Automatic annotation (TrEMBL):
SUPFAM superfamilies according to UniProt: CRAL/TRIO domain (SSF52087), CRAL/TRIO N-terminal domain (SSF46938)
Native source species: Eutreptiella gymnastica
Chain ranges of the CRAL/TRIO N-terminal domain: 66-91
Domain of life where this protein originates: Eukaryota
InterPro entries tied to this protein: CRAL-TRIO_dom_sf, CRAL/TRIO_N_dom, CRAL/TRIO_N_dom_sf, PI/PC_transfer
Gene3D superfamilies for the chain: CRAL-TRIO lipid binding domain
Name of the featured protein: CRAL/TRIO N-terminal domain-containing protein
PANTHER family hit by this protein: CRAL-TRIO DOMAIN-CONTAINING PROTEIN YKL091C-RELATED
């Protein structure tokens, strides 16, 4: 291990660099949220990579890295590599079907934008962001029959 430091943009993630056999430095994640990444976790990460080799690198515009995304799903699956791989595959399939990588480039009717108050309201006890949405009933009841649920749902994805 040559260097270890918190990620500049994401303080809950630590990064380190290791020297590979071919003398190249390779960045490796050393934590994800409150979890330390050690040999056991790296082994599980490698197992997930082997199960998902057909879809690596992952198509997710919002990911920090493929490595971090795998660790997040391993944590969610209680460190079960097969369950994490299945969940991650389903997540990426959903992102593809819903065209989630394109949602930030979309524009939305003013009726939707004005009809929803949304935002991040701080963090919970464990430091995770809290997302809230408050629909304005007067505007939504007027415009939803015209705009439809899909447009409102896309706006919710965009605003999150």
């Amino acid at each position: 291990l040559l260097l270890s430091a918190p990620c500049r943009n994401h303080p809950n993630i630590s990064l380190s660099c290791a020297l590979r056999g071919d003398s190249q430095l390779v960045a490796m994640q050393t934590s994800s949220g409150p979890y330390s990444i050690g040999l056991r976790e790296r082994t599980l990460h490698h197992q997930v990579c082997e199960l998902l080799v057909d879809i690596l690198p992952f198509k997710d515009r919002n990911k920090l890295s493929d490595e971090d995304l795998i660790y997040r799903f391993l944590i969610a699956a209680d460190w079960n590599a097969e369950a994490a791989a299945q969940m991650l595959r389903e997540y990426l399939q959903w992102r593809s079907q819903e065209k989630m990588d394109d949602v930030l480039d979309e524009s939305f009717p003013d009726e939707i934008v004005q009809g929803y108050l949304v935002g991040i309201a701080g963090v919970d006890r464990e430091g995770r962001p809290v997302y809230w949405t408050i629909p304005r009933q007067d505007l939504l009841s007027k415009h939803m029959p015209i705009l439809g649920t899909p447009a409102a749902l896309r706006w919710a994805f965009y605003a999150a």
